[in-house]
Amino acid sequence: ATSICARAIKRKSLTPSGTVAAFAVGFLSVVTGLRGMSLLVFYQVATKATKYKAELKLKQDATAESSSQRGPSQVLACSALAVALGLWHAYKHGAERPIDFAQYTQQSHLACAILAHHATCLADTLASELGMLATTSPVLITQPWRTVPPGTNGGVTVWGTACSALGGFIIALATILWDAMSGLLAFGDVTYVLQILMFGSICGLAGSFFDSLLGAVVQETYWDEERKLIYHAHTENRPKTAKLLTGSDILNNEQVNLVSVAITTFLGGYVIGPFIFGSA
Questions:
Q1: How many CB atoms lie within 10 A of CB 53?
Q2: How far, in Å, CA of 203 to CA of 195, rounded?
Q3: Alpha carbons 7 and 13: distance in angstroms, whole number
Q4: Phi, psi of 244 (to 5 degrees)
Q5: Taking Cα atoms as reference points, which of 80, 97, 76, 94 lies closest to residue 32?
Q6: Gap between the Cα atoms of 100 and 105, Å rounded
């Protein structure tokens, strides 16, 4: 956690207060067990995705530069719930266990919820940061017949959707690695591996869907026809020529992230997880 925070300061991917928050949640996440390392995987991959072709993104979305440096609210929106669940697991049940609802029912609910949380966060980040680079125009998730500019809240593409699945898949791969290192994954247990990969990918897709749906409805997106740029509700120095394109000013980006993550965390722990791994 310390080395990642130091790298974040050097690369200016976190604000000073964001770095403090990241160190706190990173430390607490890791001490709960090896699966907590998935939070660090999320940070590393998300940071690279945010920085990738940043100049091109700035030509489409006026908020891209400000979103590349994360503050404490963004850090906590993508980590607080998972850390809280991890601490509760450590306090109530002790060491991590294999995901087995028949033998470790409550531990498996919590493990799936935490995995779903990280899968959602990385899926949403990759869909947002890499989805903007799609070669086809996004369509609004609530009005799929309507094309919108890249960067629009609620805009989706096939490429962005694939990036969502990739985000969940990466977190699933990390979980497999941690379970293998800790002895929770039996050698040659292909079924368990495939279940985790399927679970992570589905949660990534589900989380990104909820995030896009909320973004289209409860976040404002503005479009400046003259500058050909996207602006959001609370963008500083938004020009008067920018006109409302979609949504309502109810939630900001961090709040939408938190809500979509909470929904998928619950579904992952108590619906998707038992369905894929088999309930007790």
A1: 14
A2: 12
A3: 9
A4: -60, 130
A5: 94
A6: 7
Structure tokens at 105: 């029912």
Side-chain-facing half-sphere of 82: CA atoms under 13 Å: 35
Give the three-state DSSP class for 236. Answer: coil
Residue with tokens 């869907």: 209
- List helix spans (H) across the chain: 2-11, 16-31, 38-51, 54-58, 64-67, 72-77, 80-93, 105-129, 158-182, 190-218, 253-267, 273-277
Q: For residue range 138-190, list pLDDT tens digits in order.
A: 999 999 999 998 888 999 999 999 999 999 999 999 999 999 999 888 877 89
49 touches 129 (CB < 8 A):
yes
C-alpha R_g of the chain: 19
The structure tokens listed for 22 are: 């990241």
3-state secondary structure of 268: helix
pTM above 0.90, yes or no: no
58 exposure class (CB count in 10 Å sphere: 0-12, 13-18, 19+)? middle
The band of 213, judged by pLDDT with boundaries at 50, 70 and 90, is very high
